[in-house]
Amino acid sequence: MEITDKVAIVTGAGAGIGAAVARRLAAGGAKVVLADLNADSAAAVAESIGSAAVAVGGDVADEKVIQQLIDRAEEAFGPVDLFVANAGIGGGPGLDSTDAQWSASIEINVLSHVRAARLLVPGWVERGEGYFLSTASAAGLLTQIGSAPYSVTKHAAVGFAEWLSITYGDKGVRVSCLCPMGVDTRLLQKDLIPDNPEAAELAVKAVTTAGPVLSTEEVAESVVAGIDSERFLILPHPEVLKMYRHKGSDYDRWIDGMRRFQAALQA
């Protein structure tokens, strides 16, 4: 898919990967609607981009807000060609995660993707084209030591993207799933497991020990390259594929290795 002259919506675009992807899409000639719970942050990024971007504040787990994004895009630029479901949150630690933490992670990390697809895919099928990009995580292919809600919901995000591609790929709908490891964002710095410093330290150490921490700009370049070649898995950290293959080749051995890795981190 060529991004030039395409209309895109990017959620979680007030900072981090979302902001970098929005800027890179606009630099490539796309028109972009930026969405973020923090309306001021989204507006600031949109202003830095210029006339090719507009901002909308709101909770993208809410289907009404997603519809507002679509309406705003059509009003400003035309029909939506690309939806980047990037907004995401960390979550609780382990079995002590509350129901509220589980619900919040499921809502934003999974159901926001489902609701966006529900609103956009039928129209894309009718047009014969459209592109859905899901930001999951390497945790969705592997796991996330230290956070059960994050690990489980990122697995679910990968699973939904996979289902979407299988179901609608022959009808013109392209799907990619972005699965990076460490990226220099607030999520890695302090927001992966809020209010639980011990679990957060373990989770962050697991990520930063496993591979390099990339800049958001590096990830955005991987995203555009993945869209251009219409790859399902977009892996800014190539080593994730090797880890994923090891996991699939001998699941028990992989789990044993992850237990040893966790013990080493805790020590």
From TrEMBL:
<dbReference type="GO" id="GO:0016491">
    <property type="term" value="F:oxidoreductase activity"/>
</dbReference>
<keyword id="KW-0560">Oxidoreductase</keyword>
<protein>
    <submittedName>
        <fullName>SDR family oxidoreductase</fullName>
        <ecNumber>1.-.-.-</ecNumber>
    </submittedName>
</protein>
<dbReference type="InterPro" id="IPR020904">
    <property type="entry name" value="Sc_DH/Rdtase_CS"/>
</dbReference>
<dbReference type="InterPro" id="IPR002347">
    <property type="entry name" value="SDR_fam"/>
</dbReference>
<dbReference type="InterPro" id="IPR036291">
    <property type="entry name" value="NAD(P)-bd_dom_sf"/>
</dbReference>
<dbReference type="Pfam" id="PF00106">
    <property type="entry name" value="adh_short"/>
</dbReference>
<comment type="similarity">
    <text>Belongs to the short-chain dehydrogenases/reductases (SDR) family.</text>
</comment>
